[in-house]
Structure formats: structure tokens, C-alpha cells
Q: What sequence folds into this?
């Protein structure tokens, strides 16, 4: 027991998405054998926080809860599959449609964590060898999957940095503001001058 924990900040899609991703991962396992993300639950990664003391993290949570009340639940459209070419390894993921509204929402979310821009996605087969990718990608290349879903909350997972059990467990779930409508909110923000959007959060939530 070192007193250090690894945290993972993420967004979890609804159960219908989670179940379909689990089925896709299981069918992938049957084709290529065990792989890194086989047993991980469907999610959109926002930011990892490796090796942090709880006494550093927990005092920041009340402000984060207030900050997240300025955002509506996220609405996204899932649109087929794609992959990241990482040369030695490949990652197959469920592709999420990017729109001005979703880009704005994630930009506002990232300000709370001082996180650089990233492409939101739901990993299916993460960091698989090229030989396994060549077997698996033909199964996903032309597969259709179109579904709209809503993310109601942000989830923080935690595990001991050094310990026997390396499984992340839910540490905190923080809801977004359900009184705000995603489309009305983003539409209004997109009509504002860029300066107003940039000033949405002067004090960033960050451990760094």
C-alpha cells in the first residue's frame, strides 16, 4: 500500500451500447485470441491521472461537481468503425460523428481538466498486433452501426498504483445538468463570439 492511486476520467455510454461493444469484443476474441481491451467496459476516455494521492484529488471534486453542472448531458451519434494506425500496433474503434456541437461540448469539458484536444471514440480492439488487425479489420470495415446515445454523467475510476488488484473500480460518478438541453445549449453557445466561449471557465480543474 503506497497511498498512490491511478485514476481514469471517462464517459460511459448507455447499456445498449455497452452490450453491443461487449459482443463485438467477444467475437473479436474468438478470431484473434486474448487482447488488451477484451474485458474493458465500453467508454470514451477523457483523461488518465496516474499515480495521484487521494488527498490531492478529493478536495478538487466539489469544484468539479459545480463545473459539470454548466454542461448538459452529451448527445452523440455512433457511425460505423475506423482504426488508428500506430505502425507496430493498431486500434479498432467505434466511430463517433464529430459536429460543431459535439466539438464545442468537448472543448468546454476539456477546459475543466486542462486536457489537449482528442478524437472521442469507443475502443473495440486496442493495441492489437498487425497480424491480428489484418484478420479482424475485414469483419469491421463494412459493418454498419448507427445509433444515437446520451451520456448523463462523468465517471472517475480508481485503482491502487501498486497492488495485487489492477482492476479499475468506480470511484465517483458526477452528473451533468439534466435541466440543460444539449442542442439548445450548443446552438446558443455557437452563436456567441469566440471570446465568450473561451472565457467559460477561467479557473481550470487540473492536477498539473
A:
Amino acid at each position: 500500500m503506497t497511498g498512490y492511486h491511478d485514476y481514469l476520467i471517462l464517459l460511459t455510454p448507455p447499456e445498449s451500447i455497452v452490450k453491443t461493444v461487449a459482443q463485438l469484443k467477444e467475437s473479436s476474441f474468438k478470431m484473434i485470441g486474448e487482447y488488451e481491451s477484451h474485458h474493458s467496459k465500453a467508454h470514451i476516455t477523457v483523461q488518465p491521472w496516474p499515480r495521484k494521492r487521494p488527498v490531492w484529488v478529493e478536495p478538487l471534486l466539489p469544484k468539479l461537481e459545480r463545473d459539470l453542472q454548466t454542461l448538459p448531458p452529451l448527445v452523440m451519434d455512433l457511425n460505423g468503425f475506423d482504426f488508428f494506425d500506430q505502425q507496430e500496433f493498431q486500434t479498432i474503434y467505434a466511430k463517433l460523428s464529430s459536429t460543431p456541437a459535439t466539438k464545442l461540448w468537448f472543448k468546454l469539458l476539456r477546459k475543466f481538466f486542462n486536457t489537449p484536444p482528442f478524437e472521442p471514440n469507443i475502443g473495440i480492439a486496442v493495441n492489437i498486433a498487425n497480424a491480428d488487425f489484418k484478420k479482424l479489420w475485414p469483419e469491421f470495415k463494412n459493418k454498419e452501426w448507427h445509433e444515437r446515445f446520451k451520456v448523463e454523467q462523468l465517471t472517475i475510476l480508481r485503482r491502487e498504483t501498486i497492488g495485487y488488484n489492477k482492476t479499475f473500480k468506480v470511484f465517483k460518478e458526477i452528473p451533468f445538468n439534466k435541466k440543460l438541453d444539449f442542442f439548445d445549449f450548443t446552438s446558443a453557445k455557437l452563436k456567441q463570439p469566440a471570446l465568450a466561449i473561451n472565457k467559460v471557465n477561467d479557473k481550470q480543474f487540473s492536477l498539473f
Notes: DSSP finds seven helices and eight strands in the chain.
